[in-house]
Amino acid sequence: MNATRIGIVGAGGRMGRMLVEATLKGEGVVLGAAFDVPGSPAIGKNAGELAGLASDVVVTDDVAAGLKHIDVLIDFTRPQGTLAHLELCRQAGVGMVIGTTGFEADDKATIAEAAKDIPVVFAPNMAVGVNVVFKLLDMAARIMNQGYDIEVVEAHHRMKIDAPSGTALRMGEVVAAALGRDLEECAIYGREGVTGERDPSTIGFATVRGGDIVGDHTVMFCGIGERVEITHKASSRMPYALGSLRAARFMAGRKNGLFDMQDVLGLR
Ligand SMILES: NC(=O)C1=CN([C@@H]2O[C@H](COP(=O)(O)OP(=O)(O)OC[C@H]3O[C@@H](n4cnc5c(N)ncnc54)[C@H](OP(=O)(O)O)[C@@H]3O)[C@@H](O)[C@H]2O)C=CC1
Ligand SMILES: O=C(O)C1=N[C@H](C(=O)O)C[C@H](O)C1
């Protein structure tokens, strides 16, 4: 089988560099193109340089032209950029792996619409461990469905711009769905002042930002006399990159459809 030709947008970013490294070292994938925004210091550089490796791919800002050389575009940028790339991929018939977080509901509908024409894997966390945690949370919530207060706590590096993290929100969605609740109606995003007693139907979120924390997530099920905490801690961005490449390989032979990492990992 031919190697999947990968394009990476935001190649100079934290995830972009990790993806370049994983692609250049990976099996069944080949780096076909690398992109960043106009004016980025990454433009004109050899992509391999971003990861201390050898490559013949030069980073450009012309995504439309570069799509001719790839099968799948991997995008960890910003919602606005991702949506622009999505339209280009749709026109070119190129699949997309979307790791960007911070989308509004309308944006997610746009992604779902585009996935009628091209294959899209869209997930707030590509790490295998986090996707296993989603399954554990579903099971835990179904069993501890009464008498347990549920709180989601996440911590990330000081450069992160969205909160709560996409992963924390998905954890909340998984738990809410298992309990037959609607997260939009029961989420509490932080507390301050005289809040009153806790409403047992709510799911609380707390956010920590600091230093170089890669990504920690804990869901607490707090009962009377006991507490269960389910935690995932990332100490490297490589699991996100390796999951993304798995998603890109998963697309081979697919013409369209919206998938997430549960589909890629066979956890559905
Ligand atoms: N799904 C998952 O598994 C994971 C998701 N993420 C998500 O990925 C995203 C990126 O994270 P991270 O790599 O840390 O961020 P960085 O800021 O390090 O990288 C983002 C990259 O995208 C570029 N960029 C910024 N705006 C645009 C735009 N409008 N169009 C195109 N490119 C743009 C940046 O260029 P410049 O620096 O010049 O602005 C940079 O190269 C975030 O949403 C984050 O939450 C992160 C890790 C894992
Ligand atoms: O911005 C990050 O760094 C991360 N973002 C994703 C999120 O918002 O859930 C995934 C991971 O936690 C790292």
TrEMBL record:
<comment type="subunit">
    <text>Homotetramer.</text>
</comment>
<comment type="similarity">
    <text>Belongs to the DapB family.</text>
</comment>
<dbReference type="InterPro" id="IPR023940">
    <property type="entry name" value="DHDPR_bac"/>
</dbReference>
<keyword id="KW-0560">Oxidoreductase</keyword>
<keyword id="KW-0963">Cytoplasm</keyword>
<keyword id="KW-0457">Lysine biosynthesis</keyword>
<keyword id="KW-0520">NAD</keyword>
<dbReference type="GO" id="GO:0008839">
    <property type="term" value="F:4-hydroxy-tetrahydrodipicolinate reductase"/>
</dbReference>
<feature type="active site" description="Proton donor">
    <location>
        <position position="160"/>
    </location>
</feature>
<dbReference type="InterPro" id="IPR000846">
    <property type="entry name" value="DapB_N"/>
</dbReference>
<feature type="binding site">
    <location>
        <position position="157"/>
    </location>
    <ligand>
        <name>(S)-2,3,4,5-tetrahydrodipicolinate</name>
    </ligand>
</feature>
<dbReference type="Pfam" id="PF01113">
    <property type="entry name" value="DapB_N"/>
</dbReference>
<dbReference type="InterPro" id="IPR022663">
    <property type="entry name" value="DapB_C"/>
</dbReference>
<comment type="pathway">
    <text>Amino-acid biosynthesis; L-lysine biosynthesis via DAP pathway; (S)-tetrahydrodipicolinate from L-aspartate: step 4/4.</text>
</comment>
<feature type="domain" description="Dihydrodipicolinate reductase C-terminal">
    <location>
        <begin position="129"/>
        <end position="265"/>
    </location>
</feature>
<protein>
    <recommendedName>
        <fullName>4-hydroxy-tetrahydrodipicolinate reductase</fullName>
        <ecNumber>1.17.1.8</ecNumber>
    </recommendedName>
</protein>
<dbReference type="Pfam" id="PF05173">
    <property type="entry name" value="DapB_C"/>
</dbReference>
<keyword id="KW-0028">Amino-acid biosynthesis</keyword>
<feature type="binding site">
    <location>
        <begin position="10"/>
        <end position="15"/>
    </location>
    <ligand>
        <name>NAD(+)</name>
    </ligand>
</feature>
<feature type="domain" description="Dihydrodipicolinate reductase N-terminal">
    <location>
        <begin position="5"/>
        <end position="126"/>
    </location>
</feature>
<dbReference type="InterPro" id="IPR036291">
    <property type="entry name" value="NAD(P)-bd_dom_sf"/>
</dbReference>
<feature type="binding site">
    <location>
        <begin position="123"/>
        <end position="126"/>
    </location>
    <ligand>
        <name>NAD(+)</name>
    </ligand>
</feature>
<dbReference type="InterPro" id="IPR022664">
    <property type="entry name" value="DapB_N_CS"/>
</dbReference>
<feature type="active site" description="Proton donor/acceptor">
    <location>
        <position position="156"/>
    </location>
</feature>
<keyword id="KW-0521">NADP</keyword>
<feature type="binding site">
    <location>
        <begin position="166"/>
        <end position="167"/>
    </location>
    <ligand>
        <name>(S)-2,3,4,5-tetrahydrodipicolinate</name>
    </ligand>
</feature>
<comment type="function">
    <text>Catalyzes the conversion of 4-hydroxy-tetrahydrodipicolinate (HTPA) to tetrahydrodipicolinate.</text>
</comment>
<feature type="binding site">
    <location>
        <begin position="99"/>
        <end position="101"/>
    </location>
    <ligand>
        <name>NAD(+)</name>
    </ligand>
</feature>
<keyword id="KW-0220">Diaminopimelate biosynthesis</keyword>
